[in-house]
Design brief:
alpha/beta; Glucose Oxidase, domain 3; binds flavin-adenine dinucleotide; FAD/NAD(P)-binding domain
């Protein structure tokens, strides 16, 4: 088979690119996805992430290496392995980050990536339920909706945060991010709007687009320093070659795009040789620069029922399912969190440096069963961690997972910020109307004093988890450690681009799905302009 363009990975960015490139009927496009079709019904029910996360039929089920910053713990890193990629598994929260994030990317020398450049792309992708305004678009492929359920404990949290001095913000994706309020969701009529639902479903009948599922791309074929094709294993495990006339776009996500580059001989030559791969092109930054959002999950027991109680009995579960089936309403429409807040841990930061995710339920870890008592969760994460980790190959076998070395909490700022976030969470818990609903602090525990910096940091090291936002492993820029230029071309290689969360030169101050979709929109414009 021979095509004009091949897109590797049908995730948040890849689906957008496949759609936009195949809009030209004179162009042939292949979209290769390691996972299968998105037929698992739980993918499309918002609360289904409880069922799809950790399910190897749709999740790569990565785990990190033991991390000294987490007192030697390994933690789960789910990633979508299905049409839609991680947008088919994620918590549905629609967050763009801060305009300053993108202006910083521009300041780093990446022309065309400032806020004024990317805002039109966010708007173009969006079909915002609240209507069109300076910051939001309507009529785009991606439906963005308001929450369909409310829970008193989350409303009490929003009120308590205001009592603690944080202003209400009706739209954190608008003029200002700072403040507290409710999440916007990537849902449509109470169903998940993944990148596949938004960008692939409406165009599946295009004869110039070939979507190949269960196709694990194992390497890029290089003719000298020019990409000319791909090798992939089909659903029977048989190796196939795809010839590509114009360009290959790697959209395998922040873990897999750098892995494919390294398997193709592009990376740090010493590391490649150690792993039995002949270096073709030296790019020492491949797989380096890894950043993620780390969350501290505080749990408070309540003296009134929370969702933990609502879902406990089979009778209630049946009622909830019926409500969803009949009205697309109730807890099954719920995203990973209901309320949020963007705040500063100290006066000397210019913009919010922490984000809250507030959930009317609690569990030992996300994706596990809820606690057998009434409780809710306040998760807090640092928005712009300084700690950077890396990915390392695990030998030359493409089916082996890379080693993930996140290097969490390895700078003083990161340690101070997570402790600052925990302290703000505990201060909000002491404000009414929330305080009167709380019977006991379950995690960390009331025995840990607010002034105990070392104790709180140690608790964070032993209890934090990922919020699943890996980025930065094929960073955009022009320095020695960057992997792609501002047009997303891999430095030194012709006809090869990377477009997904891996290209972020610095992690954005928020959840990463909307930015990944914007990156797909931007990449499409860049490719079409060059085409
Ligand atoms: C459980 C979970 C919850 C999350 N919650 C939220 C949230 O609520 N809000 C938010 O904004 N963000 C959230 N995120 C993060 C967000 O969804 C991701 O950052 C975003 O989807 C990443 O987009 P991407 O295009 O970079 O990669 P992905 O969407 O992960 O896409 C990569 C695709 O490439 C495929 N692929 C990889 N390697 C190969 C190969 N060798 N051959 C062929 N195909 C390959 C993968 O199977 C996958 O489909 C969450 C993520 C997870 C996992």
């Amino acid at each position: 088979m021979e095509v004009d363009y091949a897109v590797v990975g049908a995730g948040s960015s890849g689906c957008v690119i496949a759609n936009r490139l195949s809009a030209d009927p004179n162009t042939t496009v292949a979209l290769l996805e390691a996972g299968g079709r998105d037929t698992n019904p739980w993918i499309h029910i918002p609360v289904g992430y409880f069922k799809t996360m950790h399910n190897p039929s749709v999740d790569w089920c990565y785990r990190t290496e033991p991390d000294p910053g987490l007192n030697g713990r390994s933690i789960d890193w789910p990633r979508g392995k299905v049409l839609g990629g991680s947008s088919s598994l994620n918590g549905l929260l629609y967050v763009r980050g801060q305009k300053e994030d993108y202006d910083r990317w521009r300041q780093m020398g990446n022309e065309g990536w400032g806020w004024d450049d990317v805002l039109p792309l966010f708007k173009r992708s969006e079909d915002q339920e609240r209507g069109e305004d300076e910051f939001h678009g309507v009529g785009g492929p991606l439906s963005v909706s308001n929450m369909r359920i409310q829970r008193p404990i989350c409303d009490a949290w929003v009120a308590a945060a205001q009592a603690a001095g944080y202003p209400f913000n009706p739209d954190y994706n608008g003029a200002e991010q700072e403040g507290v309020g409710y999440f916007q969701l990537t849902t449509r009529n109470g169903r998940r709007c993944s990148a596949a639902v938004a960008y692939l479903k409406p165009i599946r009948s295009r004869s110039n687009l070939n979507i190949i599922t269960n196709a694990l791309v194992t390497r890029v074929v290089l003719d000298g320093k020019k990409a000319t094709g791909l090798v992939y294993r089909d659903r029977s495990g048989v190796e196939q070659t795809l010839k590509v006339r114009r360009e290959i776009i790697l959209s395998g996500g922040a873990i897999n795009s750098p892995q494919i580059l390294m398997l193709s001989g592009i990376g740090d030559p010493d590391h490649l040789k150690e792993n039995g791969i002949e270096p073709v092109h030296a790019l020492p930054g491949v797989g380096k620069g890894l950043q993620d959002h780390l969350q501290a999950r505080l749990v408070f027991k309540c003296n009134e029922p929370t969702l933990n109680d609502e879902v406990r009995s089979l009778f209630n579960q049946a009622r909830i399912a019926l409500k969803y089936a009949l009205f697309r309403a109730g807890p099954m429409t719920m995203a990973a969190s209901l309320a949020t807040g963007f705040m500063k841990t100290r006066p000397d930061v210019e913009t919010p440096d922490i984000q809250f995710h507030v959930q009317p339920w609690s569990a030992d870890s996300p994706g596990e069963g809820v606690h057998p008592f009434s409780a809710f969760t306040m998760s807090v994460c640092q928005l712009r961690p300084e700690s950077r980790g890396e990915l390392r190959l695990n030998g030359p076998d493409p089916s082996k997972h890379v080693k993930i070395i996140p290097n969490y909490l390895s700078t003083d700022t990161d340690c101070r910020t997570i402790v600052g976030g925990v302290n703000i969470a505990r201060r909000i818990a002491k404000q009414n109307p929330l305080a009167s609903k709380i019977s006991e602090e379950f995690r960390p525990t009331a025995d840990l004093s607010h002034d105990d910096y070392e104790g709180t940091l140690d608790w964070a090291r032993s209890n934090t988890t990922s919020i699943y936002h890996p980025t930065g492993t094929c960073a955009m820029g022009s320095d020695d450690m960057s992997v792609v230029d501002a047009k997303l071309n891999v430095h030194g290689i012709m006809n090869l681009r990377v477009a997904d969360c891996s290209i972020m030169p610095e992690i954005v101050s928020g959840n990463t799905n909307a930015p990944a979709i914007m990156i797909g929109e931007k990449a499409s414009d860049l490719i079409n302009a060059d085409g």
